[in-house]
TrEMBL record, chain A:
<comment type="similarity">
    <text>Belongs to the binding-protein-dependent transport system permease family.</text>
</comment>
<keyword id="KW-0812">Transmembrane</keyword>
<dbReference type="Pfam" id="PF00528">
    <property type="entry name" value="BPD_transp_1"/>
</dbReference>
<dbReference type="InterPro" id="IPR051393">
    <property type="entry name" value="ABC_transporter_permease"/>
</dbReference>
<feature type="transmembrane region" description="Helical">
    <location>
        <begin position="76"/>
        <end position="98"/>
    </location>
</feature>
<feature type="transmembrane region" description="Helical">
    <location>
        <begin position="21"/>
        <end position="43"/>
    </location>
</feature>
<protein>
    <submittedName>
        <fullName>Sugar ABC transporter permease</fullName>
    </submittedName>
</protein>
<keyword id="KW-1133">Transmembrane helix</keyword>
<keyword id="KW-0472">Membrane</keyword>
TrEMBL record, chain B:
<dbReference type="InterPro" id="IPR003439">
    <property type="entry name" value="ABC_transporter-like_ATP-bd"/>
</dbReference>
<dbReference type="Pfam" id="PF00005">
    <property type="entry name" value="ABC_tran"/>
</dbReference>
<protein>
    <submittedName>
        <fullName>ABC transporter ATP-binding protein</fullName>
    </submittedName>
</protein>
<dbReference type="InterPro" id="IPR017871">
    <property type="entry name" value="ABC_transporter-like_CS"/>
</dbReference>
<dbReference type="InterPro" id="IPR008995">
    <property type="entry name" value="Mo/tungstate-bd_C_term_dom"/>
</dbReference>
<dbReference type="Pfam" id="PF17912">
    <property type="entry name" value="OB_MalK"/>
</dbReference>
<dbReference type="InterPro" id="IPR015855">
    <property type="entry name" value="ABC_transpr_MalK-like"/>
</dbReference>
<keyword id="KW-0067">ATP-binding</keyword>
<dbReference type="InterPro" id="IPR012340">
    <property type="entry name" value="NA-bd_OB-fold"/>
</dbReference>
Amino acid sequence: MASKPLSARLTRNLNAKIAALPMIITTLVVFLGGTIWSVVYSFTGSKLLPKLKWVGLKQYDRLWSNSRWEISIENLFWYGIFALVLTIAIGFLLAVLLDQKIRFEDTFRTILLYPFALSFIVTGLVWQWLLNPEMGIQHIVRSMGWESFTFDPLYNPDLVLIGLLMAGLWQGTGFVMCIMLAGLRGIDEDIWKAARVDGIPAWKTYLRVVIPMMRPVFITTLVIVAAGIIKLYDLVVAMTSGGPGNASQVPAMYVYDYLFQAQNLGQGLAASTMMLLSVLIVLIPWAYLEFGGKKHA
Amino acid sequence: MTYSVQIKDLDLHFGAVKVLQGLNLNISEGEFIVLLGSSGCGKSTLLNCVAGLLEPTDGQIFIKGNNVTWEEPSKRGIGMVFQSYALYPQMTVRGNMSFGLKNAKVPKAEIETRVNRAAEILQITHLLDRKPSALSGGQRQRVAIGRALVRDVDVFLFDEPLSNLDAKLRADLRVELKRLHNQLKNTMIYVTHDQVEAMTLADRIAIMKGGVIMQLGSPDEIYNRPQNRYVADFIGSPSMNFLDGEYRNGTFVKGDLSIPVQGYAFATQPVEGGAITVGIRPEHIVTGPLVASAPYRTTTTVDLVEPMGSDTLVWAKIAGEPFRIRMDGQATVAVGDTLEIGIDPSRASVFDAKSEERL
Amino acid sequence: MLEASKMVDRTVDAMSGPRGKKPKKALSGRNIMIYGILLMVSLYYILPLWVMVMTSLKGMPEIRMGNIFAPPVEITFEPWVKAWSSACTGLNCDGLSRGFWNSVQILIPSVFLSIAIASVNGYALVNWKFKGSELFFTILIFGSFIPYQIMLYPIVIMLRELGLYGKLGGLVLVHSVFGMPILTLLFRNYFTSVPEELFKAARVDGAGFWGIYFRIMLPMSLPIFVVAVILQVTGIWNDFLFGVVFTKPSIYPMTVQLNNIVNSVQGVKEYNVNMAATMLTGLVPLVIYFISGKLFVRGIAAGAVKG
């Protein structure tokens, strides 16, 4: 094609380009620009205000030698592993149960999904109340006669992640179930018929045929849930505020505190860059599989 | 005589909807039965009942003399081929064909033999280690047939197996299926909405409508002696011409038109003055030199010409009704031409206008 | 009428053997297991809501003595009244009502603006592709996975430059920006399913970019707009992080104020008031959820559909 004058190329679909301006500004300025700005300033010694005073990797050195950051990362790692595995496993199992042509499917689904409509703050506060040692579950079990029963995750540094997990699973499993159910419903009815004619028991059909067929659904869910876990913040704020002590600190909290409370901008930006890095570790292989694979196939 | 498959008084209701109603069908050993009908007629439902994938509301199903009404599909001695192939996408062709056998704990050597034999029959030996996604539609359907074949069963069920293929492949695979049946001599029940498949493959065709069999018979019977107006209209393309009129003294009368029908072999003599319908296939109307020998002759004016290569369809009017005439593809006719045509009432079909049953 | 039915079969006695539906036990082991598990899980899911409502209807003395699962002996709506009109955050004691109205003020323009932008985006991406449009869309989708934390401070600077930092308008803008990825995806997928012929026919008839959008696309995509509204109302109402970062105490949205009321360390803990406040904050998304039913599910599924 012969090259048209520049002005003609710019004005082609001009209305569409003007209409897409908010999207273009968002992607270029906010998403790309903001991310690059943060990464760049994480190599500076900025305190209260951003200043281009290069300090190399010093902020990262300090970050990784800070015990609070170490705890945050460790917490996120363990919480993340368990939350990921359990939400996906439980979500899938519930979807399978709902897929058995049962009665009251809509009722069950409504019950299992409603927590997802609630905010993490509401979720955290409800579970904080349920897990209140003097009046919540521990108190009830004790008053039923089991005097030595102890379950106070929000006040026990060793158990606090379990407390968070109980609330996190309660809020998020319904979402995974919904996606999995849609995935199961997307499987060709004839596949099930063929397996029945072949005499394959239902559990084996799930294991050997259906789950392999749902691989894309599992991977997409995994990425969405994992990206959500890394952002984990509101739930911890509402339930424990990072306590007892520093036992339930998470990276997002560290970033917030250093950016807006401790007035140590460089440190906060270094921490947020680490968060970005961890998401990219999840995101890039997925994007490669999802979009890179298509071109070769 | 033992039948291969027997269906007795089968009813199937989904709530208030009656999908199958008091259906009876006996299928002999080695017979190729085609269930034919438009969508929603209950043909696939019937097949699924035979397979055990749907539970009938009432009635019984026998396979090889055994009452299998409550039996699991895998224990009925059937193999089934689906329209969407329904291959297990993550397994190789070999895996697809052997999965059921492995699960039934058939010895390894035996599985090997059966898979290889089926692959040879279907000429897919070179594809055994591929995954379904790497196969063409026709190859996939062969694998699906292979999966049914290795089960070593007496009855094969086909649920519109060729409907997802393009026209040319469909024709090729149709011939192969016929060959396969000649070779294996198993009982086959085949569901389709394509009348060409039905006519070419079937020993007997069951034409269904509203959960009831409208006619069961050989392709020849169905085509030449349709039992009712529905079957007559359904079979044949272009479809049959129908003329509604009265029976008077051995003659069909409609306005100025009167066609003597003495030559027609009535099963039931129509009442004098009774309303009847005469059906004449477009290809049974003769033109040119053959008109002279036809028992009834008339002239008509050409309204529209549809040349189709192998033959030409001419639209005209008889007694004010649109009328199709099938002529040779080489015939030269133009709109406005006067056409002399001949009709042989012995090849026509006559129906009672009210009950629509053949007379 | 039928040959088949006339044929009498003598080999099998028609009366003997199984007939019709295979009888099934209603209480088969399989059913007990399925319904048993579902009921137990449902109980786990309902319990927090139950406890929340029950606690909010009790007086403090009854709470201190009793069982959190038990229904109230004496129902009182006082905690709800107090949570709404006089609960304290710091020195402010005008209850959650302030947060509620703040949230409403944030919600309405945010929902409107974000959906307006995203629907036009989706429409432009499907029907008016221009060089680079797909690239922008890809970055947009990637942006939705990136932790917001990395963009927080740059956005603070941008809002300050625009004079919107600490103002409702700033938060509205932030919600519109971060709602864009998922909503654009939603609208793009929906508009892709609209037959292209319709668009072409309109162009042949001389309709332009906005003409086609307002007169053809908009009227025929009402359901997807409803899905988008549901998605945005729950999402924006439930937001905490943006509210905390981009506003100041006097205009905190409801979630932030709720957290401050419940987790404030001053004074005696009034659990009934806390639960009433929590319930009040959760009420808006819950009502939307129960009314919208399947549409809510559709909104969720849209998030999981590949771009």
